[in-house]
Inverse folding.
């Protein structure tokens, strides 16, 4: 695909508001004034309240649910159990992945009703829904529901789940295995390892995290008896996809469900799928004829929002005598929790395959993953969804291999990096890298981080009794594949222009960069452009936001839709200007007769159309476009992060003292917003590596179920993050855009853990797993000292 060469860079509007300019987010003034409208801000006449009754057991047989006392309490309108939903004929929540076991049989997908009738499989699983006139009445009644559960033994650890004597969550999943996944040519990989001069082996944990979106999940369900139509107000990552999931569960035609989403306070993958709580609320709305609202409190969020990461892999890297990669192999477990999420276990299977190879030449790869059920909250996509994990495994292997072979850690990367002259490059996963300058990114990062000056800084730290380590984290991500996306452009009666697309802004700031694309292509003033994403009734299709694809997909849809507006406009303008359509040119927002000064502006033409024009049948009567783009292929954002940490060996406290990141995200639609995405991803990566630790006891009780026990990063944890760019535009979409939303995590996990391990190497510690909490670091140092003394 050819990337258009700009010939309009002297246009003042484009210089200020076009693609590539750091334009402030248009929604921010409203949000900082507290004028946003999140799901819990929506209030409907006659609304009632839902409260979920949740299991206190991690595993057990449901013997009885006595709701009689609760039903008799003041204000209570109904109490629903799984039996009620089953009688109503609702379906189950689905997993959409077509994964197969290594023997070719399909992945095991046990049915997941919104409210169970047979067993509970984790603490916090909803078993009943209480509906009452007020929230407090619903809470009081929920306490009165008596749930008789016969406790069963629980299994928490992934490897323990895969044993003959382990408690079985599902009869159809022996040894609790959802899928025994395999990718790669085992014989070719084994041959490469057999001829290797050196093999590095490392067992690594990618720790479980609680997603912790700022806004808890919530919904308001409505039902119109006259039309038989459900409406759900809900925070999500794409209303079109959410609608389709609900249509499937409710068993109704697509036109009988509408999903509305306003502002969303974060998601990171967690709000993409339909959750059990939404179904009893929709059912109650239909049964009671009143709107039903539910909002999770923070304790419920810990127990019912899906968690992220949670993998353990034995990784191996085969190298020749010069340190060049021959093959890598990853064998391990991915925890899916008590239920299969909508896209689980993508993170520990296909996305390890696609992302672990990163930006290096490796002839042969092999991934073997057992995705297992455990009596814990389900695990699904979390910012990066396997991309940070895969890159982390590779970068730690490289650092350890370099140390074992006596090769400089920078040099070993240089020797194995794909060179610009080798692109397009087909990786062993089948991905085709279309663009990139990986050595150039590395060089710029090393210079920006003052890599050569590190030893002096290390000496200065030592004088203060601190250990100093530096971590290099190169990464390459494979974004989500092509999916259809809407690009609608509507010229409104008030003179504004609405862009309609099926991605969804849950904090990214889509309105401004998408408007910048239309400023570029149609010359429409930025303040005239509006964005609609959150109404399923207005969408023809919608791929949603996830997998770092919104910028590339919606911008491509906008470009294609703009071209259609221009085509229609030329036909209309030719009639108005009394010229042949072939003689009409479009530039900077105006249709011009070639070689003359006769012209009409796009918005002026739209206004004339609204006033009524006598047009022949073969001339369009409107400039409006409802376009469906086929989507664009995966892109390959990449970069290099360099972190420096100081560790106090007396307390185990880790401090991040320097952080530099150089990235290739292709064309930047809005650098200011890309900076923000990087900052957020890096902070989440720092949080996972330093403090976030999700812990269950042997009975399946979540021990870190509040922010008293679960340590999110604070402002004092985060250093100044220097963000630089080394862009090489993608060749597979019209603007050359590459995804950026998840890359911060990929760079942060790798650079942070490499830096921490570099500092701890002074004690002979070969590998230390995340999270590097003060207690765990201190214990590792003490154990290393004891071993050395012995």
């Amino acid at each position: 695909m050819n990337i258009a060469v700009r010939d309009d860079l002297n246009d003042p509007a484009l210089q200020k508001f076009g693609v590539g300019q750091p334009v402030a987010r248009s929604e921010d003034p409203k949000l900082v004034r507290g004028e946003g409208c999140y799901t819990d801000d929506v209030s409907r006449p006659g609304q009632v309240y839902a409260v979920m009754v949740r299991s206190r057991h991690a595993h057990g047989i449901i013997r009885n649910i006595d709701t009689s006392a609760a039903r008799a309490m003041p204000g209570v309108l109904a109490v629903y159990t799984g039996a009620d939903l089953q009688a109503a004929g609702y379906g189950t929540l689905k997993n959409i992945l077509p994964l197969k076991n290594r023997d070719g049989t399909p992945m095991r997908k046990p049915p997941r009703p919104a409210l169970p009738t047979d067993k509970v499989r984790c603490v916090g699983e909803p078993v009943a829904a209480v509906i009452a006139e007020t929230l407090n009445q619903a809470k009081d009644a929920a306490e009165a529901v008596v749930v008789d559960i016969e406790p069963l033994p629980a299994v928490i650890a992934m490897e323990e789940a895969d044993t003959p004597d382990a408690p079985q969550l599902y009869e159809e999943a022996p040894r609790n295995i959802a899928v025994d996944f395999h990718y790669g040519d085992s014989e070719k990989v084994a041959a490469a390892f057999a001829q290797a001069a050196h093999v590095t082996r490392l067992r690594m944990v990618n720790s479980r995290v609680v997603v912790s979106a700022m806004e808890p999940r919530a919904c308001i369900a409505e039902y119109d008896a006259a039309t038989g139509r459900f409406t759900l107000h809900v925070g999500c990552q794409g209303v079109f996809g959410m609608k389709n999931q609900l249509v499937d569960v409710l068993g109704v035609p697509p036109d009988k469900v509408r999903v509305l989403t306003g502002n969303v306070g974060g998601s990171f993958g967690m709000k993409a799928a339909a959750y059990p709580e939404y179904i009893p609320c929709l059912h109650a709305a239909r049964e009671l004829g009143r709107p039903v609202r539910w909002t999770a409190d923070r304790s419920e969020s810990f127990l019912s929002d899906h968690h992220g990461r949670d993998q353990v892999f034995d990784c191996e890297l085969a190298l020749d005598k010069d340190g060049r990669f021959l093959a890598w192999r990853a064998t391990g477990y991915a925890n899916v929790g008590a239920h299969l999420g909508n896209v689980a276990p993508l993170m520990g299977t296909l996305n390890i395959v696609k992302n672990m190879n990163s930006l290096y030449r490796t002839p042969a790869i092999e991934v073997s993953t057992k995705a297992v059920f455990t009596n814990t909250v389900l695990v699904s996509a979390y910012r990066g969804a396997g991309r940070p994990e895969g890159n982390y495994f590779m970068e730690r292997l490289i650092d350890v291999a370099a140390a074992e072979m006596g090769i400089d850690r920078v040099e070993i990367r240089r020797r194995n990096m794909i060179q610009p002259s080798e692109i397009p490059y087909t990786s062993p996963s089948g991905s085709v890298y279309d663009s990139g300058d990986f050595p150039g990114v590395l060089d710029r990062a090393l210079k920006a981080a003052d890599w050569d000056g590190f030893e002096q800084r290390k000496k200065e730290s030592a004088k203060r009794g601190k250990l100093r380590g530096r971590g290099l984290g190169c990464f390459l991500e494979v974004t989500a594949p092509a999916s259809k996306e809407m690009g609608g452009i509507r010229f409104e009666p008030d003179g504004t222009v609405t862009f309609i697309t099926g991605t969804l802004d849950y904090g990214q700031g889509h309105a401004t960069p998408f408007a910048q694309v239309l400023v570029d292509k149609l010359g429409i003033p930025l303040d005239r452009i509006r964005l609609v994403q959150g109404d399923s009734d207005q969408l023809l299709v919608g791929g949603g936001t996830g997998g770092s694809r919104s910028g590339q997909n919606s911008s491509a849809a906008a470009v294609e839709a703009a071209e259609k507006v221009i085509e229609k406009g030329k036909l209309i303008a030719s009639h108005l200007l009394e010229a042949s359509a072939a003689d009409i040119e479009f530039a900077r927002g105006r249709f011009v007769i070639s070689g003359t000064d006769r012209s009409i502006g796009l918005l002026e033409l739209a206004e004339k159309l609204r006033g009524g024009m006598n047009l022949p049948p073969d001339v369009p009567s409107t400039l409006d476009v409802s376009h469906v783009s086929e989507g664009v292929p995966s892109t390959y954002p990449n970069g290099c992060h360099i972190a420096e940490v100081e560790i106090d060996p007396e307390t185990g406290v880790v401090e991040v003292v320097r952080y530099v990141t150089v990235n290739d995200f292709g064309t930047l639609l809005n650098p200011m917003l890309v900076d923000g995405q990087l900052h957020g991803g890096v902070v989440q990566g720092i949080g996972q590596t330093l403090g976030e630790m999700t812990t269950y006891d042997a009975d399946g009780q979540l021990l870190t179920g509040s922010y008293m026990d679960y340590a999110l990063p604070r402002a004092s944890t985060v250093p100044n993050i220097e963000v630089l760019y080394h862009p090489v535009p993608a060749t597979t979409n019209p603007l050359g855009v590459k995804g950026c939303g998840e890359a911060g995590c990929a760079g942060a996990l790798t650079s942070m853990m490499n830096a921490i391990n570099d500092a701890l190497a002074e004690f002979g510690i070969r590998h230390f797993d995340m999270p590097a909490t003060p207690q765990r670091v201190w214990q590792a140092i003490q154990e290393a000292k004891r071993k050395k003394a012995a």
